[in-house]
Amino acid sequence: SRIAFEESSDDSSSLINRAVIQYGGGCCYYGGITLVEASPTIQNTIVAYGNYYGILAHNSQPTLGCNDIFGNGSYGFYNATLGNLVIAENQWWGSSSGPYHPFTNPTGLGNAVTDGVDYVPWRASSCSSPEFKVFLPIVVR
Fold this sequence. Notes:
Shape: globular
Number of strands: 12
Largest sheet: 4 strands, parallel
Helix content: under 10%
Oligomer: single chain
């Protein structure tokens, strides 16, 4: 199973926000989120433990805003159209060392990315955080 956006999708109204997408996708041609000539906005979302790809893009340029992309079987982000650069900056890839890429970040311990994915800078920690914060008073004597 997967979430798919295709050419007929209205990019301006296509949005995934504050979602948890896990265990999706299928071998070779599908990601937990699959984009085919569609460019939705995906933000504040966890894309994890996909069978093969977390996000798979064919001729797509999604707008990505602070997502946690980690633990996917083969790639966190697979760009199938190399001439089409996807901006994936400021995402968390499951490690403070960033995503793994064999040439541009071979020491990255996070989910792998393909060529055609601009992942620098990446986040050193998860984007996920509670919706509220509690501040306790400090008493100094």
